[in-house]
């Protein structure tokens, strides 16, 4: 069973000098350009990458030395630290904490890959007993893990400096807690690259197989709609939101054959269906967000980065309704420039809306203390 996330921490990553954020079921971050909202989103993506054993590649694509906090440090080596705390389902207290620390290779210019990300430390800690217990502890090449019997043992595993134990260590029956945390992170979904150009995969038919969840690139959008219509046999909320956004329109989802397809009808042309290739960018983006937020089965955690892009302002209230509805079924993290979208969510009383600013080059969440609590909640 997947685990709800209770806290996200990031240190030394881009503008995130030091952030410890207590998660709720719906967290909304609003602020101006350049304050680091997307870095918050990206930090969560990197934790997902750690579970997929692609953290090294992800940071290498950014340029590790460029991704590190560029501000002053207290005589400490340049490192990026990312962590997440998880609770057992239906519990508020964190039961597990995963943390990974990344830096440049110790050999500097003499290292085989001198700019490659080097996993310095990696831990998984359990907090369910009288005192914290290290279930996995990696420091450089040394690795200790506790098996199902609870005994700590040195683990001999072929692992590169750029690989994570979380993504590399297998045998779920021997390391069940590690496997639960990994599977939880792997099921997270991030939606920011939903292309709407003419060559977008969302505009093409997809395989005629059920799709309970929208892919990160939206490539199975037609199958998501077909699953709602012909497996769940319930498109009431989807149809309502499309009517709310585009009055008089209808989403047409025929029974899938070898491929899943969809089209739309508009009140001006009631006897003609419009294929995805004919729909506007804004219409396609709204449909993609509907697929992400109203799908047959939502992931345990969904992150949206600037979903309002390409949308007409009148679509922001329907989008807010979909976000609020989705937050009843999953945890949701939203980064937005739109004060109007944030206000619509806040008016619904559904989640925490946080203002993000910048101070001395560092991203700041207003009201958040260095201990990971909010002053107005203390």
Any low-confidence stretches, pLDDT <50, length ≥5? none
Radius of gyration: 22 Å
- Beta content: 25-35%
The tally of structural domains comes to: 2
* Largest sheet properties: 8 strands, antiparallel
Quaternary: single chain
Fraction in helix: 25-40%
The mean pLDDT is 93
C-alpha geometry = globular
**Class inferred from helices and paired strands:** alpha+beta
Query: What is the tally of helical segments?
Result: 10
* Topology order in helix (H) and strand (E) letters: EEEHHHEEEEEEHHEEHHEEEEHEHEHEE
Straight-line distance between termini: 32 Å
Q: What strand line-up does the widest sheet have?
A: 2-1-4-5-6-7-8-9
Report on this model:
With 378 residues, the protein is an alpha+beta fold. It has two domains: 5-188 and 354-377, no CATH class; 195-337, 3-Layer(aba) Sandwich (Rossmann fold), CATH 3.40.50. The protein has helices at 37-51, 55-62, 64-67, 165-168, 176-186, 221-230, 236-245, 281-293, 316-326, 339-347; strands at 5-13, 16-22, 26-30, 79-87, 94-103, 118-126, 133-139, 142-146, 152-154, 189-191, 206-207, 250-252, 259-260, 263-266, 269-274, 301-305, 331-336, 352-359, 362-365. The strands form four sheets. An eight-stranded antiparallel β-sheet has the order 2-1-4-5-6-7-8-9, covered by helices on one side. The mean pLDDT is 93.
């Amino acid at each position: 069973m997947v685990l709800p996330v209770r806290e996200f921490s990031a240190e030394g990553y881009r503008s995130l000098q030091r952030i410890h954020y207590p998660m709720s079921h719906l967290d909304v971050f609003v602020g101006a350009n350049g304050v680091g909202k997307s870095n918050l989103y990206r930090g969560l993506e990197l934790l997902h990458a750690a579970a997929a054993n692609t953290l090294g590649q992800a940071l290498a694509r950014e340029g590790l030395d460029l991704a590190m906090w560029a501000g002053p440090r207290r005589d400490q080596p340049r490192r990026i630290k990312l962590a997440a705390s998880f609770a057992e389902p239906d519990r508020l207290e964190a039961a597990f904490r995963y943390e990974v620390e990344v830096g440049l290779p110790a050999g500097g210019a003499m290292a085989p890959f001198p700019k490659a990300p080097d996993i310095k430390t990696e831990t998984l800690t359990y907090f369910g007993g009288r005192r914290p217990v290290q279930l996995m502890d990696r420091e450089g090449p040394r690795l200790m893990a506790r098996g199902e019997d609870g005994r700590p043992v040195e683990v001999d595993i072929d692992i590169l400096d750029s690989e994570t134990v979380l993504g590399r260590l297998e045998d779920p029956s021997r390391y069940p807690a590690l496997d639960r945390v990994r599977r939880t992170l792997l099921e997270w979904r991030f939606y920011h690259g939903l292309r709407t150009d003419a060559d977008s995969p969302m505009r093409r038919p997809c395989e005629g197989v059920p799709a309970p969840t929208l892919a990160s690139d939206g490539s199975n959008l037609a199958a998501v709609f077909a699953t709602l219509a012909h497996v769940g046999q319930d498109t009431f909320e989807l149809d309502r939101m499309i009517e709310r956004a585009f009055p008089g329109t209808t989403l047409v989802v025929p029974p899938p054959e070898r491929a899943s397809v969809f089209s739309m009808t508009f009140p001006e042309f009631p006897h003609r269906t419009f294929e995805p290739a004919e729909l506007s960018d804004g219409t396609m983006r709204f449909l993609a967000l509907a697929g992400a937020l109203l799908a047959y089965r939502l992931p345990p955690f969904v992150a949206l980065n600037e979903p309002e892009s390409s949308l007409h302002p009148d679509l922001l209230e329907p989008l807010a309704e979909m976000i609020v509805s989705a937050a009843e079924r999953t945890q949701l993290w939203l980064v937005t420039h739109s004060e109007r979208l944030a206000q619509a969510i806040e008016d619904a009383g559904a989640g925490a809306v946080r203002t993000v600013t910048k101070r001395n080059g560092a991203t700041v969440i207003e009201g958040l203390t260095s201990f990971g609590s909010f002053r107005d909640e203390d």
